[in-house]
Amino acid sequence: MYPKSEQQFIYTQHFIDPLTNFGFKKKFGEETNKDILIDFLNSILPDEDKI
């Protein structure tokens, strides 16, 4: 088992926080993830503005 400080380092290296600008752009801003972005936008937009 790794010491707690190393566990935190390992954890942060494997996951991107989508609440940061970088994480959001990485997750939703790439062409390969276009369908995920459309689903996300449709889930938060009112019915008349759905994509």
Strand content: under 5%
Structural class by sheet pairing and helices = mainly alpha
Give the overall form. Answer: elongated
Summarize the biggest pleated sheet: none
- Write down the overall mean pLDDT: 79
What this model shows, in words?
The chain is an all-alpha fold and 51 residues long. The protein starts with a helix and ends in a 7-residue tail after the last helix. Helix content is 59%, strand content 0%. It has helices spanning 4-14, 21-28, 34-44.
Note the topology.
Layout: H1 4-14, H2 21-28, H3 34-44
Summarize the structure.
Helices cover 59% and strands 0% of the residues. 0% of the residues are buried.
Question: Keyphrases for this structure?
Answer:
51 residues, mainly alpha, 59% helix, 0% strand
